[in-house]
Amino acid sequence: DRHQARAIFLSYEPTEKATKTLIFVGKGVTYDTGGADIKAGGIMAGMHRDKCGAAAVAGLFQTVAQLKPKNTRVLGVMAMVRNSIGPNCYVADEIITSRAGVRVRIGNTDAEGRMAMVDFVAHYREQILKENYVNPSIFTIATLTGHCCLAVGDNYSIIMDNGPARQMKTAETIQSAGH
After folding, report:
1. How far is the C-alpha of 123 from the C-alpha of 126, rounded, in Å?
2. 137-170 pLDDT, tens per residue?
């Protein structure tokens, strides 16, 4: 049972009519062995921190609870999973069908965070279309530290837009706020 995945859903409803909806999907890999493509060479130490995306979502909701934005609906999920080795782990070259019906070929079992979050992104997309959320934006938050460090160096965060977010200049706005 301790290896079963869990979803922790969080929500904040504003006191006034929502003018936008922010949705956060956080990667919560409680421990990452690398799966069947096991991490080798002693780099498994510290992989309990692979849940920091989900922790960031929890922290964000603590901040939202304190600030109580009047016109912003905030939804989120912490996608909690353990990337372990065993009879239920997935392996390289396995094909997994996502909630959205997209087939994903596993090329690296250490990319488990994407698999943990993808169905929740699809879930919220379905909800947006079904319930007609006001000005929705979906954010995925993950610790992709190895790749981030390779791309921009240590001690930096990365934000990347998809097409609609790029048109709205979401990354630029967040980067400016950070500066």
Report:
1. 5
2. 999 998 766 677 788 887 777 888 888 889 999 9
Please list the active-site residues. 39, 114
- Secondary structure class of 28 (helix, strand, coil): strand
* Domain enclosing residue 17, as ranges: 6-144
Q: Is 150 inside any structural domain? A: no
SS3 of 31-95: EECCCCCCCCCCCCCCHHHHHHHHHHHHHHHHHHHHHCCCCEEEEEEEEEEEECCCCCCCCCCCE
Q: What is the pLDDT of residue 108?
A: 79
Quote the pLDDT of residue 44.
61
Domain count, the chain: 1
In whole angstroms, what is the distance from residue 71 CA to residue 152 CA? 35
* Contacts (Cβ under 8 Å, ≥6 apart) of 149: none
Please answer whether residues 29 and 110 qualify as being in contact, where contact means their C-beta atoms are separated by less than 8 angstroms.
Answer: no
